[in-house]
Amino acid sequence: MQRDAPLASEPIRATAVAGSWYPSEPQELAAVVDRYLDDADMEPRNGVRAIIAPHAGLVYSGPVAAHAYGAVRNRSYEVAVLIGPSHFVGFDGVSIYQRGAFDTPLGPAPIDTEIAERILARSSLIVPYAAAHQREHSLELQLPFLKRVLPETPIVPLVIGYQVRKTIMVLAEVLAEVLSGKQALLVASTDLSHYFDARRAAELDGRVIEHVGRFDGDGLLSEFERYPENERGRYVACGGGAAIAAMWTARALGAIRATVLKRSDSGEVSGDTKRVVGYLAAIME
Prior knowledge:
This protein has about 280 residues and is an alpha/beta fold. Strands 2, 3, 4, 7, 8, 9, 10, 11 and 12 form a nine-stranded mixed sheet that branches. A three-stranded mixed sheet has the order 1-5-6, with no helix packed on it. The termini are far apart. The N terminus is likely disordered.
């Protein structure tokens, strides 16, 4: 994949799913997010290096994501590094949006250009490929929570293309190097199994939860690689590579344990238990 021209001509990434996947009206959105945070009733914790949070429509995934974000509410971070899968564009490597901001109904989320440029310079696998961000919802669904719990924290958006071992490893190595000595929060965006009945989904999701709870990124990668690449998102997690990279990076930055905070599925909201999507909230500290 070739590098795009610099993004300076279009520095603001417009919302793609505001008004459909979550409210576009600022007061309504803030009220919904705050209600989820209050219902989760998570005590903020010091020393959280990474979180795992889902990215479905807010009404489905928001109550789960709130557990992870409640754990970092009003903590102090220099930067939040967002890692998610690409749902619409296939490509090798990782796409970084290195300057400007991501727009949100709650105001723009500015990009930490210095950190982004340092990440970009470390590997040819990390490139500014704007098309990967244009329609992508996996990072966008994290922003309403970030704007409520860490409103002054700049972001670095990273979308993984093909989630293969080499790309995941390189990304983790680069992030561990660049973020060393920084107060950084890693945000891994992923849903779990897709479109199984609730009982089968709980079984499949339980395997992911086991690896996350043991803080075992290697084990999660092995589970990911049990399936053909085009089936990993369905059987394991659509953002499995993001979760693994965040786990490895968090450990390199000093995290010593992981805690699974909440697991649920879409059927608990929709009432349809025949085809559900699984959701997970977890932290590493």
